[in-house]
Design brief:
single chain; about 450 residues; alpha/beta; UDP-N-acetylmuramoyl-L-alanine:D-glutamate ligase; Protein-Tyrosine Phosphatase, Chain A; 3 domains; 9-stranded mixed beta sheet; 6-stranded mixed beta sheet; globular
Length: about 450
């Protein structure tokens, strides 16, 4: 089915789109331009939406805004924004009254004419997705990037060609209602995350499983052999299973042994490159590359794999070197909104760092992070709602004997300036918060940009 045919099938039906954010705006515009009866529901007020509200109404939309935006949903089709769980009472009530609950991403899977490679996991999704995109483009493919990065792809589907490739980063919020899986799936890892939104760990893990659950025998899934959750998932995968591992040899997939990365097939191994050929710092990025290599097996040559590893500079806000001044390097790892991400960031450096951490709690324990901070941090600067919680985890960690020095700052800018004041030649200042940004910022990008702005003012 094409997107054009899908739109035609909506004629005469009542359509509700919940959320007028980035992921849904192209869809809303397409619906309205096609004359479809569409109501747009958004928790923002009209004043908050500003000109966007006027533009939508001029296109013919009905608007339900503010606190009562979900009241009395009556529709044939409801498009859910990824941030709103399907268990929401208003959505459940709409379904009980006959509505079909779907999303922009679910429909894209139905109408996409080309191969889909999708990535999920608790950590490493964006970097792995970006590596896949770079590998495929360097091989000569036309690649469309979407999901949590890139752009919403649904309205572009009819212009895609069968020999193109769509590369998607998918979150648990997008996957939880999916009843289709990509032809190639990558499952980087799983650890407790988003437990402030998901009912429990079981629901979170169940959502992630949808990335491979609906595959058939001709499809492929790449699992992290080093992660307990993903290793167990391989037992129920219906298609071809490949592994990547930093710790042990795999029968089929990609693994590292000492400093060499190998590709394995049918129990036979052949060297691909040295781990040192990968420009991005950190052993976790070696894992991200290996996951991507396994996913594109048969599509991308080894020459392109090596060239890409040597030239790919990474993604903004992910252990991004933003400045070096007077021998001090400043790294922006604002994307690290969970303890496991921050742990990976700390392990990326061969020295103890000055760490800036803290933010909004996601319902995840900081005990393991506390132990890693004792091992890898010389000065800890904490700010945000979780500052006291993280401090307690560090002070209770085995091996804590008054080090690292722990400093609490009420203000984010004060935290950055304090970290910089503690740095001497040869030091690393790392923003890697281990928490979401929502106590002070709209998203991790805004937090990272603010960090960059403050650092650039400091070093002038």
């Amino acid at each position: 089915m094409t997107f054009r045919a899908y739109l035609d099938g909506l004629k005469g039906k009542r359509v509700v789109v919940v959320g007028a954010g980035i992921s849904n705006m192209p869809l809303i515009t397409a619906l309205l331009n096609d004359g479809i009866d569409a109501t747009v529901c958004d928790k923002r007020t009209r004043d908050d939406m500003g000109e966007t509200a006027d533009r939508l109404e001029n296109l013919g939309a009905r608007l339900k805004l503010g606190d009562q935006y979900l009241a009395d949903l009556r529709a044939d089709i409801v498009f859910r924004t990824p941030g709103l769980m399907p268990s929401n009472a208003a959505l459940s009530e709409a379904v009980r009254h006959g509505a079909v609950l779907t999303s922009e991403m679910e429909v894209f899977f139905d109408v996409c004419p080309c191969k889909i490679i999708a990535v999920t996991g608790s950590d490493g999704k964006t970097t792995t997705t970006s590596i896949l995109t770079e590998l495929l483009r360097n091989e000569g493919f036309t690649v469309h990037v979407g999901g949590n990065i890139g752009r919403p792809l649904l309205c572009d589907a009819d212009s895609m060609r069968p020999d193109d490739i769509a590369v998607l980063e998918l979150s648990s919020f997008q996957l939880i209602t999916m009843n289709r899986s990509p032809q190639t799936a990558v499952y980087t890892n799983l650890s407790p995350n988003h437990l402030d939104v998901h009912a429990d760990m079981e629901e979170y893990a169940g959502a992630k499983r949808n990335i491979f659950k609906h595959q058939d025998r001709s499809d492929r899934v790449v699992f992290n052999l080093d992660n307990e959750y993903t290793r167990e998932c391989a037992l129920s995968a219906p298609g071809e299973v490949l592994f990547f591992s930093l710790r042990e040899k795999v029968g089929s997939g990609v693994y590292a042994d000492s400093d060499t990365i190998y590709e394995a097939s049918g129990g036979q191994s052949e060297a691909l490159m040295q781990a040192g050929d990968i420009m991005l710092p950190g052993v976790h990025n070696v894992g991200n590359f290996m996951a991507a290599f396994a996913a594109v097996k048969g599509l991308v040559s080894r020459r392109v794999m090596l060239e890409t590893a040597r030239t790919f500079r990474g993604v903004r806000h992910r252990i991004e070197l933003i400045a070096e001044s007077r021998g001090v390097r400043y790294y922006n790892d604002s994307v690290a909104s969970s303890p496991t991400r921050t742990i990976a960031g700390l392990r990326a450096f061969g020295q103890k760092v000055i760490l800036i951490a803290g933010g909004k709690d996601k319902g995840v324990a900081f005990d393991e992070l506390g132990c890693e901070i004792v091992r890898h941090v010389k000065t800890l600067v904490l700010t945000g709602l979780t500052a006291d919680t993280i401090r307690t985890a560090v002070e209770n960690a085995p091996g804590f004997k008054g080090e690292p020095e722990i400093l609490l700052c009420d203000d984010f800018e004060e935290a950055v300036k304090t970290a910089a004041s503690k740095a001497n030649k040869g030091d690393v200042v790392l923003l890697s918060p281990a928490c979401t940004s929502f106590d002070r910022f709209a998203n991790f990008e805004e937090r990272g940009d603010k960090f960059r702005e403050i650092v650039m003012r400091i070093i002038r």
